[in-house]
């Protein structure tokens, strides 16, 4: 295979930097032609000097100006502003766009890439959660393939490979249970930001790590799985698997299951999406089952972790409901990470916003973005009345 | 797909009867055109009346005469004698030959089916153990596919599906450990025939159940995996997995593993081989991971169960060594099942026969059958000098 030309959206984040590590390891296979980052700090400048993209974007024009001056010796176009990432995503010479911007901000540039006919390696699950119907329809229309980077969806994608779609009975997403799986219900109002950021198995960014602690991450993944694999909600199950080595499973109509396994390291699923249909000879330690001890599986606990159910409910409601769910969660997690509200306020906020919302059809990007804006405003209102984190620690 | 015409070799055994159960469940998919059984008892007559094959064989001409009289009202040809199974296997109108005769006796009819260009669903691992080079060369020459029925090899076959052969790093066969995994070394000279026939997870015939107890089964499966999947001995590993729900795994060059899982029920792998490339909607209970508790994995124990190592050694020696190994094991297991020798005499006999043998090339069927005969004679001699089962129980 020749060199694959990559555009990386969210290049300074956790997935973005891991992707660039792989590019550095396989220089004959990959070339970076575009990068998009939120801010234009030193990390981005180092990436530009090392990987020599032709075009780079940052969110703010002032950051772009600064970066342009810093990189004046390099043959690179620096774009700035809210639409710049979409321009980089859709640019002419990219073969594969790695969509790794965190949160709702990833939707518009990813959709722009799809509309430009680019293959997508998708880490930004919000693209599918917010606008799954729209995105999958656009991708189908343009014959664009969307390769999952989320470890669970990569596992399912691998376990579906070479099998007939009509033989699939059920998708089973595994969930680590996060840092609070062993905390009783009454203990959850005492947990802190630092506790929530201590994920037992995976090293990820702060937003997704908090989502793992609430299990909202798994709720979002159920929605993502629905759109990626065309499977109805009642045929997508979740099982708690504390060791995070079985990354997910597919059950077939003959009772057979195929599971994808490995050590918890995002370079695995990233590498699979980058090099698909081949596999990269990654220098990851193999999974030594005999040395691991036991692999355990437990049912989810909707009592303590209701966010998973909210994901199923939003998917069943359809239309803009998943976009509302996602926006409410993003606002609540941001407030929690800022120390403005306590942990339990995240689920509480999502529930209140969902129950107040009147979901409509999500046929256009505008429908989706409008629902997103409405839900953020509603969430901020709820969050303003939530007990602050410091107070709750005091009176728990 | 139209009706697949099946020939079932070993129709009254454990795999044969399970195969016919599946045929009965899917009458639109399968039709039985030939059966071969060892003896012509009532079970075979019932199968003939129910499935209406056009041709049937039994090993002895006197059994054939009796059966012919009993089935005089049916349009069926009954053949008898040592070559009759091969005639049924190679007959004109079969699409797929299920090779499920137990032991070395399966080799000649399976090879006859391959030479007649029939696809094979292979439960008789001895075909590959004794004559893997010969059999795979013949199959390649005639474009014949060999679909594994052994649960481990079916698992690997499923986990290889849709993947690139050059990306495979390692095959990992799981082993239940058999009924004696928790018995200490000094306890193994007290175990009885009844103990050995009590397999913890799988319901199988007596020969293979004893092979599971010695782990010789896994040694034979390593050799079978080598020939089925073209993988060298040092890239085939074995891990003890007591629960027998992970049926085997494939590790790829990126550190990813694909595992096939399910409840331990032979209808799974049989159905997969019969209907390949589709899957049958089998009415097997699904594997409920959350209800199962833990899955465990341990390294093998060559100290207590040396037969696994004998399998690797014979594979590395090559030529007729695996045929010698298999013949010595068959003789020893038969003696153990007859109550003539104690459990530990099985491994001991294999080791002595292997160490005495001078393996040569196995390029023709005659080479293989001659090695088989030599090893049986050698094994019987060793077994004649082994302590009898009853004696050993007395003085243990």
Can you give a write-up of this model?
2 copies of one chain form a homodimer. The first copy, chain A, contains 17 helices and 11 strands. With 396 residues, chain A is α/β, with parallel strands linked by helices. In chain A, α13 packs antiparallel against α14 (321-337). The first copy, chain A, is globular and about 60 Å long. Chain A starts with a strand and ends with a helix. The interface between A and B is large, with 52 and 52 residues. β11 (257-261) of chain A pairs antiparallel with β11 (257-261) of chain B, so a sheet runs across the interface.
Largest sheet of chain A: 7 strands, parallel
| Largest Cβ-defined interface | A-B, 52 and 52 residues
In percent, how much strand structure appears in the residues of chain A? 5-15%
Shape of chain A: globular
The CATH class of the domain at 4-148 in chain A: Alpha Beta
Query: Which regions of chain A contain 5 or more consecutive residues with pLDDT less than 50?
Result: 391-396
SSE string of chain A, helices as H and strands as E: EHEHEHEHEHEHEHEHHHEEEHHHHHHH
- Record field, number of beta strands of chain A: 11
Structural Rg of chain A = 21 Å
Q: Order of strands in the sheet with the most strands of chain A?
A: 4-3-2-1-5-6-7
Number of helices of chain A: 17
Which structural category do the helix and sheet elements of chain A fall into? alpha/beta
CATH superfamily caption of the domain at 4-148 in chain A = NAD(P)-binding Rossmann-like Domain
Report the span from N to C terminus of chain A: 59 Å
**In percent, how helical is the residue content of chain A?**
40-55%
């Amino acid at each position: 295979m020749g060199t694959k030309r990559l555009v990386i959206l969210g290049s300074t984040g956790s997935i973005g930097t891991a992707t660039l590590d792989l590019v550095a390891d396989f220089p004959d296979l990959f070339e970076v032609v575009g990068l998009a980052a939120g801010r234009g700090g030193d990390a981005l400048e180092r990436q530009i000097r090392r990987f020599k993209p032709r075009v780079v974007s940052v969110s703010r024009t002032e950051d772009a100006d600064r970066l342009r001056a810093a990189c004046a010796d390099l043959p690179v176009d620096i774009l700035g502003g809210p639409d710049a990432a979409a321009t980089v995503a859709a640019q002419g010479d990219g073969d594969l766009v790695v969509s790794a911007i965190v949160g709702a901000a990833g939707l518009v540039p990813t959709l722009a890439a799809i509309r430009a006919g680019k293959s997508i390696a998708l880490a930004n699950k919000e693209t599918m959660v917010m606008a799954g119907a729209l995105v999958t329809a656009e991708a189908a229309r343009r014959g664009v393939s969307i390769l999952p980077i989320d470890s669970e969806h990569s596992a399912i994608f691998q376990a579906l490979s070479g099998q007939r779609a009509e033989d699939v009975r059920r998708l089973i997403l595994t969930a680590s249970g996060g840092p609070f799986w062993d905390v009783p219900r009454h203990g959850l109002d005492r947990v802190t930001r630092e506790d929530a950021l201590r994920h037992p198995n995976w090293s990820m960014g702060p937003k997704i790590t908090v989502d793992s602690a609430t299990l909202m991450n798994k709720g979002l993944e159920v929605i993502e799985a629905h759109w990626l694999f065309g499977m109805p909600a009642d045929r997508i199950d979740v099982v708690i698997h504390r060791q995070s080595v079985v990354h997910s499973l597919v059950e077939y109509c003959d009772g057979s299951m195929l599971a994808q396994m490995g050590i918890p390291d995002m370079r695995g699923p990233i590498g699979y999406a980058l090099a698909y249909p081949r596999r990269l000879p990654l220098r990851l330690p193999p999974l030594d089952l005999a040395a691991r001890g036991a692999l355990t599986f437990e049912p989810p606990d909707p009592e303590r972790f209701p966010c998973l159910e909210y994901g199923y409910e939003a998917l069943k409601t359809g239309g803009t409901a998943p976009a509302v769910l996602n926006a409410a969660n993003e606002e609540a997690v941001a407030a929690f990470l800022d120390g403005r509200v306590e942990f339990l306020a995240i689920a509480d906020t999502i529930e209140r916003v969902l129950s107040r919302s009147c979901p409509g059809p999500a046929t256009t990007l505008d429908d989706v973005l409008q629902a997103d804006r409405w839900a953020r405003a509603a969430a901020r209102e709820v969050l303003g009345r939530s007990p602050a984190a410091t107070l709750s620690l005091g009176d728990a």
